[in-house]
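hi! just following up on the protien thing from before. the input was this:
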Amino acid sequence: MSIQPEIVHRVYAAKKDLSAAEDLILDYIPFIKSETAKAIGRAPIEGNDDELSIAMIGFHEAIETYSKERGAFVSFASLVIKRRIADHHRRENRFRAEVSLSATVSEDEEISIADTLESPERPHDDINEREAVKAEIAELSEQLKSFDITLSDVATNCPKQDRTMEACKNVLGFARSNPKIIQTLKGTKKLPISIISKGTGVDRKTMDRHRKYIVTLLLIYSNGYESIRGHLKQVFNTEKGGAEA
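and the predicted 3d structure came back as:
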């Protein structure tokens, strides 16, 4: 109880200061990993377990929505993280149930982000899934407006070459394992290209050329768009030995 006032002070400061939020998240990484481990039954692996990224997002959400009336911050953050991960598992289980009934997608049939965003009503989707995708696309479209991006922009900005697609995939993986990248993107509405380039080795020109596509990917993978994400997994060819995006 004696440390509660200090935590509350830091949380309220983090609501207004991105740097303070980053520091708070970094200090509580052990707590976030612990909550993730409780949810998946083992220690999470950075860059591999979606649940860890979701837990970090949940912690940041807890910072933004916390008030003293909600009680102890740590307890509140734990509840938010659990809800986020539980919702993720529910949607993932529904998606896996559908995939198990389908044949492995061939390279010629792989779905691009443009396909997913422009054609949510795919023949093999059931009614609930179609409605979920429609709702997520509408929400994503609204969120993209603050970045001056439209879904049409995304469709025309998709990488055409395997090498470029792999570069975008590396950017996504790096950002998901470094939450401050996402925080900076959302806070400034700008992609921190220099930081990402230094961390991944991806050419700055490549990122600048496909900025709208990359920004959209980062938003999708940091805002719980589970139905869209389910379709995008096929782009990264996870079923044929590729690293999961």
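Residues 73-99 form the longest helix (27 residues).
The CA atoms of residues 10 and 24 lie 7 Å apart.
cheers
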